[in-house]
Amino acid sequence: MDIKNQSLAEAPEPDIAAIPALKAMLANLPESVRAVATQPDLFWIRQRSAIRSRIAVEQAGKQPLPWFAMAGAAALLLISGLLIRSTPSPVPQAYGDPDQELLVQIEKAVHSNVPEALAPASLLAEEINSAQPEPHPAIKENSHEN
Amino acid sequence: MGTALTLNARPDEIATGIAEEQFDEIVRQHQRRVYRIMFLLVRNADVADVLTQECFVRAFEKRSSFRGECRIDTWLLKIAVNLVRDHARSRRASFWKRLVGLADADSEELPNAFPDHGPSPERTVIARRQLEAVWALAAELPERQKTIFLLRFAEELELADIAHVLGLKVGSVKTHLFRAVNAVREKLKEQQWT
């Protein structure tokens, strides 16, 4: 301790008795503080309970996880990592352009000989025609002879 | 592990560390005084309650580091005074935030300087008036002077204990106390003339 601090430490305390107004003001101050800060027993019980709860919560937050929980979490991470690596990346699905599809339909309709509504009937007629055999020329000639 | 729990235990009688099972008894013995000092310094019953809880939670966390260099109550008061200082800093910060419109004005603390329930109506009214007058006198003191002034005259702490709680030398505590008393005396004179 240096000289200055030593002299300060040895110096007397401020004497409030020499200041009557202050002395009067500070008289019984400790009792006044106690009176104002007094609380019912229930307040202290509740406060102790709150302290216990807060300590319990903080302790629970600091508890290390048991070994099996940590091992399980590690295994889960490993498996999910393997799954992510082995899964093939999805092929991007091609979506048809509705405008393009409409253009193709129009083009088909333009090149077709029949209206679109009669297209099934024309297809049927073509099939019937192709299935029927053409008449033999010799038979035709014989019928003329008769 | 033996730990002296009484206020009168000498430091050399106190073993190091505090056992977990003893902590509840420590809270029971010291909660009133810690709360009273909190209330004296923050002037708000609700804040004093919250800070008292925080003080004991921190004490529990640090209980293994308690080496018995001082009494348990002095050790608790050191934690308490640090909490009050942190609270004052955060209040100042929130005041400036409110001032520039960064914080919601509704979140301002409601004035609850005194608890609704007390010992007896008349004594409490007189005590409140006296305490309010002292608070008003000490309000303009610098934070450290105010703390020393209140700890000395309202809580009757010894200068050596105040020095330990605040981490100061006894000489510095006396200097702060002299300045505080002089400032308060000047203010009293002003009040008498006006």
The overall pLDDT of chain B, averaged over residues, is 81
Strands of chain B, total number: 0
Largest sheet of chain A: none
Level-1 CATH class name of the largest domain in chain B? Mainly Alpha
Work out the helix count of chain A: 8
Q: What is the name of the CATH superfamily of the largest domain in chain B?
A: RNA polymerase sigma factor, region 2, helix turn helix motif
Q: What class do helices, strands and sheet pairing of chain B give?
A: mainly alpha
- The whole-number mean of residue pLDDT values of chain A reads 76
Task: Describe the protein in words.
- The complex is a heterodimer of chains A (146) and B (194).
- In chain A, 70% of the residues lie in helices and 0% in strands.
- Chain A is mostly helical and 146 residues long.
- Chain A has a domain at 99-128.
- Chain A starts with a helix and ends with a helix.
- Chain B is an all-alpha fold and 194 residues long.
- Chain B folds into 2 domains: 1-114, Orthogonal Bundle (Rna Polymerase Sigma Factor, Chain: A), CATH 1.10.1740.10; 118-194, Arc Repressor Mutant, subunit A.
- Chain B has helices at residues 20-42, 45-61, 72-99, 121-138, 143-153, 159-166, 170-193.
- Classes of the chains: A mainly alpha (146), B mainly alpha (194).
- The interface between A and B is large, with 39 and 55 residues.
Brief characterization of the structure:
The complex is a heterodimer of chains A (146) and B (194). With 146 residues, chain A is mostly helical.
Secondary-structure topology with pairs:
The complex is a heterodimer of chains A (146) and B (194).
Chain A: H1 3-10, H2 20-26, H3 29-37, H4 41-62, H5 67-86, H6 98-111, H7 119-131, H8 137-145
Chain B: H1 20-42, H2 45-61, H3 72-99, H4 121-138, H5 143-153, H6 159-166, H7 170-193
Helix pairs in contact in B: 1-2, 1-3, 2-3, 3-6, 5-7, 6-7
